[in-house]
Amino acid sequence: MTKEQRLKKRHSAEKRFRFYGLASIFIALLFVVILVHNIFSKGSSAFMKTAINVDVFFDQELLGIPNNPSKEQISDADLYDVAIESILKVYPASGLDQENALIDLFTIDAEIEIKKALIKNPNLIGKTITLEITASDDIDQLHKGNYPRELPEDRRRISDYQLQIYDTLVEDNKIVKNFNTYYFQNGDSRDPELAGIGGALVGSFYSIIICLLLAFPVAVLASIYLEEFAPKNKITDFIEININNLAAVPSIVYGLLALQILLATIQLPRSTALVAGITLALMTLPRIIIPCRASLKAVPPSIREGALAVGASKFQSVFHHVVPLALPGTLSGTIIGLAQALGETAPLILIGMVAFVVDIPSTPIDPSSSLPVQVYLWSESAERGFVEKTSATIMMLLSFLIVMNFLAVYLRQKFEKRWN
Q1: pTM, rounded to two decimals
Q2: What are 121-131's pLDDT values in tens digits?
């Protein structure tokens, strides 16, 4: 083989390698685009909810409250009869079956929504106003185009009579779409139109804050000691090996550890953000120590030597000069570790955060859920409304993870020092 042939062969191999690399990147991006498109196409509609305009007459006799009532009296009032009477006026219905079919077009919280309007404005007593009452999940999915109305009636949850009512309401412009505040303000619910991620958001927030408060100072101090003060011997080598091994341990193992120690032995409250935060802190600890030690090691020895040369002690040289210079890499590693902890599901399931929690937690020791666990719970539900809420929650989770990763990159680029 001549020199020209060998050179041509090397150039051909280089072109093939570039082609394979570009093809791999294209395929990876294609799968990402397909995944994101699938999630967004299913979940974007969850941020809107369907409502029906209803003329509500606040009949004082039906309310059973005196003139100029207090908020407590309004809160204690029974508005069920007012709600039913108002709903039955939306469309002419004859017979109990048709009336029940009409009532089923609305959420079971219609009475509560009407009561909130009266609490907000007590002067509505004796007056008629138009309120937007949340529609049931089936009507919501039908209005969003996610319900197959062409199926035979015996295979649909919506009857032909209900479809007739829906079509009439659409022609009369009585069905509207609004921003779904329930999705962000409510906790979990058996009814998809009322379910929200409010409890999961607060639970995840408490868990990550506890994880940060526990893991960050311990990890930084451990890194500083191991890298700057600890003697290099078999004991420190053994510790370093185990830290690297702990970073690779499956997260479910930490869930088993928390189940045995935190719940069974210490008997901390189950299904709480406190236990979740401690569990995630144990899992995140080695994932912060490793980048923190790498950042400390990346600081040039001349910084330490210069500080010592002007009379600084070992402690001063480390904490006044080395640690501040290593902080950007430490912060970025911490944020990435917290982002991984935010998306963990397996250890939280083992400590009981998979429980059905309706109320939004007010403290870290209240029962709560988290965003990834909420995705797990809703993905097992059969109702169509939970399908879009599952995808929407994944969108929220991905948004938080992307923001945290961008923040890590920004901090590293902004504060990182370049050494020549």
Answers
A1: 0.87
A2: 888 888 899 99
